Amino acid sequence: MTDHRPTIMLVHAHPDDEVISTGGIALKYHEEGVRVVLVTCTRGEEGEIVDAELNTPENKERLAEIRDVELAKAIALLNITEFHQLAYRDSGMINTPANDHPESFNKADLQAATARLVALVRQYQPDVLISYDENGSYGHPDHIMAHKITVAAFHAAGDPEQFPEAGPAWEPKKLYYTAYRRSIWRKAWEYMQARGDKTPLDDPETDLERYVDDPRTTTAIEISQYLTTKLQSLLEHRTQIAPTWGFLALPEELRGDLLSHEHFSLIESRVSLPEREEYETDLLLGIR
Model's pTM, two decimal places? Predict the structure, then answer.
């Protein structure tokens, strides 16, 4: 029997999500010898093409293929070599016609979709599972469905009576949700607006009540040394990410405060953890 290799599994909804909230930890933990496995649930065919040069009817028709290529380039930069595409259809943004497509991820049978993920959990034996919170971070139907199957798989994978066809049981040790320091983003936008920059604060539809921190946030992983590569990886998603988007539009003097850490909420742990007053700084605390 071979020794178990510490493993983290990321469950994301679309191509590009893997970079936005977990690109830094993918680089960090790979460098530390930890296996990082990425599961992407859809091919992102409902994404809006933001690059005017690429925004043609032909490219829209074959957007899933284009995003497959973008994803391959992005994860190569992140040193992710273990990748699985569940290949459900992108459900589109909430309350759009794509939500009703019979092949969309949010229409998938929950048990069947969970079974697919359980099989991967049992194959790769992750110590840590990471996905989104109950609202999928921002309400996207595919993010919410990714949340549902990740939580279900966390509880089912270790039970040999559930999904017996999915392989020998394996019980992950920790379940995390991605988290964001939204209060810091709001302060950054206020700073940028005061100096005349365009920010989400200019949009009357921006719900400022959202921009408070999730009190469940437990974990802050330092990624400063990987930030340049993370941003390069993000730009590989050319159809989706403009050079003026979010992270990339930040003034240089704000990047350190905003982008130096990736944040998570530890939701369940099957290992004992020490008492803490500050953020946890290692997703594998209590495991290795």
Answer: 0.94
